[in-house]
Amino acid sequence: MSVALGASERLVVRTVPVAGPVDLIGRLPHPSALAWIRGDEGLVGWGEAVRIAVPGGDDRFAWAGRRLEAIFAAAEVHDPLRVPGSGPVAFGAFGFDAKSSDSVLIVPRTVLGWRDGRAWLTTIGEPEALTLVRPLVEPEGIGWTDGTLSAPEWGSAVGAAVERIREGRLGKVVLARDLWAESRQPLDARVLLRRLSDRFPACYTFAVDGLVGATPELLVRRSEETIESLVLAGTTPRGRDAAEDEVLADRLLHSRKDLDEHAYAATMVREALTPLCDSLDLPDSPELLRLANLQHLATPVRGRLNSERSVLDVLAALHPTPAVGGTPTDVALDLIRELEVMDRARYAGPVGWVDARGDGEWGIALRCAQLEGNRARLFAGCGIVAESVPEAELAETQTKFRAMREALEG
Ligand SMILES: C=C(O[C@@H]1C=C(C(=O)O)C=C[C@H]1O)C(=O)O
Question: Which one of 3.10.150.10, 2.40.50.100, 3.20.20.300, 3.60.120.10 gives the CATH number of domain 2-409?
Answer without folding.
Answer: 3.60.120.10
